[in-house]
Amino acid sequence: MGERMRAHDWSTSSLGPPETWPQSLRTTVSILLNSGHPMFVAWGPDLGFIYNDAYAVILGDKHPDALGRPFADIWADIWTDILPLIETALSGEATWSEDLYLRMFRHGYWEDTWWTFSYSPVRGESGGVGGMFCACTETTAKVVGERRLKFQLALGERLRPLTAPGEIKGAATRLLGEVLSAGRVGFAEMEADESWLTIEDDWAQGDLGPIGGRYRLEDFGQGLADCVRANRVLRVDDVETDPITAGQAANFAAIGIRAVLGIPLVKAGRLVALLSVNMAAPHAWTDDDEAMAQEVVERTWGAVQRARAENRLRENEERLRMVQAAGGVGSFDWDMVSGRIHRSAEYLELQGLSEAAGDTSAYTDDWLTRIHAEDRDQVARWFQEDRARTGPFDREYRIVRPSDGEVRWIHNRGRIDADAAGRAVRLLSVQTDITDRKRDEARQRLLINELNHRVKNTLAAVQSIAGQTLRNAPSVAQARSGFESRLMALSRAHDVLTRRTWEGAEVAEIVAGVVQSFGADSFEVEGPNLNLPPGAALSLAMALHELGTNAAKYGALSVAEGRVAVRWEREDGALQLVWQERGGPPVVPPTRQGFGSRLIERGLPRELGGRARLEFAPGGVLCEICVPLPDDASRRAG
Which residues pair with 43 in a beta bridge? Predict the structure, then answer.
């Protein structure tokens, strides 16, 4: 600047030739020319401007024409903002400004700047104030950095509690729009073809309104589409003059856009989002504007993806909870490194534990104390084996619930994960209550064993019936008829027992089967509700069938006027049943003992541990049967 000052034509300046300057001005100029700090001095009635090399950078396009020119002409763009400070300095009072905002035009466009400087009065030879001296520092970078940091913190605070993608996009675009004083900010997500985009929850103010919807990139011009797809930031200060958008100026005008800042976002080589900041008037975008917009598009995308993932996780967890609740499935999760354990509500219910046991920070062996004493050692061995080898496991054992002391069967299925060194680090398992299944299995085994026993008994009975019938029948036809009749009686008795799942049969049901076979009009039946075990029921049914068959052939049931009375009662813990015939032909005692007589007089006492008496009285056959009864044989009449 020293050489430039010496070569300068000072006749064009109100300052005049340097040799005419007062000593105070010369001294001040000497100080600033030898300083590396931005400085200037403004002197005389129109404040002629003299500055150093460091300040020349600040002037931008105004340098070098600013030398010697009036202060007001040089900084006409900020003159009204700084005039009060200048007047104060010229009145003899120094001023100090820190981070003062000035919007200036020095590089061919308007820009936001911040300054820290002082205006100091400089006195002339007469002692009056002849001008002012300024040492200044541009703090734009500092202020912008602080503003950016503050913006980042504010953005994080706004997005942190939000869980809905729409709310996240709306909050982020609003904050950026307010900081940049924009007319509209929209966050668009790209479709898979990278041609169509959807804008939702965009923010707008002033003359610009929301433009949410679905668009093609080419709707805004091929130049813009190519720029975005190439992952280049779009900074258009004026859509009417910028070569990228000039051909689409009318389309931009239709939605109120005059300046646009577009920030594409590419993930894994694919264009996934586009942030658009719009102004209703031409606007010079700055690097700081771009940096904040970049921050928003990255943070918004990340927050939206996390929210969607967390929402899916919550939905999955809710579905899992519903499945667990519906199926009674309890889950157990043990971090074997930290010791932290999580037990689901279903697990606590199944194990008979309180809600306080749902989550713990340290592992304990308390679960072993709930294992049934007969299973505990085996379960402990299983656990040590599973922990040593890791991988899946599948176990069944009994527990004793501490809440009610009830014994329950548990099916415990899961896996133990290992780290790279093969050490067990996590155990995950699901447990179900299989007590009912175990009871059903035990009952099934019992039924199978009982079925085997009964089949053998039935085959023995059939064998006995066949042997006795064939041995004593006078002819093949009679043998066949007798054998079939007895098998049918046995079948009817089996039908009664089957209906009762072989738990026994009512005496009344057994008698009713006989009555139905030989004609109800000929019988008188009376007796309480008494239940017989399966074996006793079969034997009694066969005995009554033989009595009925004999009565139909030779006794009371062989004539129309004949009658049979069947009465029974419980007495001294036993069934006392009486078969009494009357009105039939005179009874003649048989000359030999047949199958029926042997069944009643020998078979019943042997099979049932009771007794039976058969009397062939002239007025009608009398049979008395006594069968011991279990304690629960008596049943209330229905």
Answer: 48, 131
User: For residue 530, what is the DSSP state?
Assistant: B
pLDDT value of residue 440:
85
Q: What is the block-wise mean pLDDT of the chain (638 residues), using blocks of 10 residues? A: 89 90 94 95 95 95 94 96 96 96 89 94 92 96 89 91 92 93 93 90 88 89 91 94 90 91 94 94 90 94 91 73 69 87 86 78 75 92 89 93 91 91 90 88 74 53 49 62 56 53 76 81 91 81 82 87 94 92 89 68 75 89 89 45
How is residue 601 annotated by DSSP? Answer: I
Quick one: which of 470, 466, 411 has its CA closest to 435?
A: 411
CATH superfamily of domain region 2-138: PAS domain (3.30.450.20)
Distance (Å, whole) CA 638 – CA 384: 58
Instruction: Give 58-63's long-range contacts (Cβ < 8 A, gap of 24+).
Output: 58/106, 58/136, 58/138, 59/106, 60/106, 60/107, 61/106, 61/107, 61/108, 62/106
Look at domain 331-433 and name its CATH class: alpha beta
Q: Quick check: 52 and 70 in contact, CB under 8 A?
A: no
The CATH number of 144-309 is 3.30.450.40
Give the list of residues 6+ apart from residue 493 with CB closer than 8 angstroms, or none. Answer: 505, 510, 513, 537, 538, 541, 542
Phi, psi of 215 (to 5 degrees): -135, 160
Three-state SS sequence of 546-559: HHHHHHHHCCHHHC
Q: What pLDDT was estimated at residue 52? A: 96
CB 197 within 8 A of CB 262: no
Instruction: Tally Cβ neighbours within 10 Å of residue 388.
Output: 10
Q: Please tell me what DSSP assigns to residue 15.
A: T
In angstroms, the CA 2 to CA 56 distance is 12
Domain borders along the chain are 2-138, 144-309, 331-433, 440-628
Would you state the structure tokens that stand for residue 413, as one six-digit string? Answer: 């299925």
Of 3.40.960.10, 3.10.450.50, 3.40.1010.10, 3.30.565.10, the CATH number of 440-628 is 3.30.565.10
Closest CA to 52 of 67, 69, 33: 33
Give the alpha-carbon dihedral of 624, 625, 628, 629, to 10 degrees: -100
pLDDT of residue 135: 96
Residue 541 contacts residue 490 (beta carbons within 8 Å): yes
Determine the pLDDT at residue 496: 52
Given this chain, do its domains 2-138 and 144-309 carry the same CATH topology? yes
CA distance 511 to 575: 13
DSSP sequence for 176-230: HHHHHT-SEEEEEEEPTTSSEEEE-S-EE-TT-----EEEEGGGG-HHHHHHHHT
